[in-house]
Amino acid sequence: MKKAVFKNLALSFCGTFKRPLECLFLTLCFLFFGQSKVIAAESVTYKNWIVDITNNTTEAHTANDSGSSFGLFCNRDSCLFYVHQNFDCKPGEKYSALVNSGAVSGPISVECAKINGNVFQILVPFNLVLEASKNAEVIGFAFPLSNGAYTVARFSLAGSAEAMKRTLIEAAKANKPAAPVPSEPPISQPGSKGLKDIVI
């Protein structure tokens, strides 16, 4: 996911928190309350994966030949897996999908969000996707379409172990108490996993 997409994503959701999925992106909004733009402090490549590191977030991601992307996004205290691809689904829509790799296969749940014409799919449960990403060369996701068919997205895992480990390490470094912000109590983010609960 490009940094510009994150900016648009955050700005789209900052003023209208009406659906639970929007809480997934709450911390992205906070990034823009305190600074005019997000600048990547560092971008590191691990084979087919890229890690983007900023002061408040880290992200490991890869893309396939069709332009879809798969990644791990972490803010200061939680992480989530996402797939971003070009097919239509309704914002807030939840459905079942399948994940498969040489290591693990099984059913997952997906929640869609459409922001500025881009569709994001948050993958749950976190631990199943994490396990499927370990010790394999390729990971694939099968998403149902409205006509009863499936679309499949496959991604290389070459470099993913190092990229995800670096993402979690950097996210843990950024996990410092933030200055108090007058707001409502934090809302549990569906599809995310607390940093302290993630084991690689």
Question: Can you tell me about this structure?
Answer:
With 200 residues, the protein is an alpha+beta fold. The protein has a single domain (3-178), classed as Sandwich (Immunoglobulin-like), CATH 2.60.40. 21% of the residues lie in helices and 36% in strands. It has four helices and eleven strands; from the N terminus they run ααββββββββαββαβ. Strands 1, 2, 3, 4, 5, 6, 7, 8, 9, 10 and 11 form an eleven-stranded antiparallel sheet that branches. Helix 1 (3-13) packs across helix 2. The longest helix is centred in the last third of the chain and has 15 residues, at 160-174. The protein is globular. Residues 1-38 have low confidence and may be disordered.
Average pLDDT confidence is: 78
Largest sheet: 11 strands, antiparallel
Helicity range? 10-25%
Overall outline: globular
What is the CATH superfamily?
A: Invasion associated locus B (IalB) protein
Strand content: 35-45%
Précis, in short:
This protein is α+β, with helices and mostly antiparallel strands and 200 residues long. 21% of the residues lie in helices and 36% in strands. The chain has a single domain, classed as Immunoglobulin-like, CATH 2.60.40.
Keywords:
single chain, 200 residues, alpha+beta, Immunoglobulin-like, 4 helices, 36% strand, disordered N terminus
Spell out the blueprint of helices and strands.
Blueprint: H1 3-13, H2 26-34, E1 42-46, E2 49-53, E3 58-63, E4 69-74, E5 78-85, E6 94-101, E7 105-115, E8 118-124, H3 126-132, E9 138-144, E10 150-156, H4 160-174, E11 193-194
Antiparallel strand pairs: 1-2, 2-3, 3-4, 4-5, 5-8, 5-11, 6-7, 6-9, 7-8, 9-10
Helix pairs in contact: 1-2
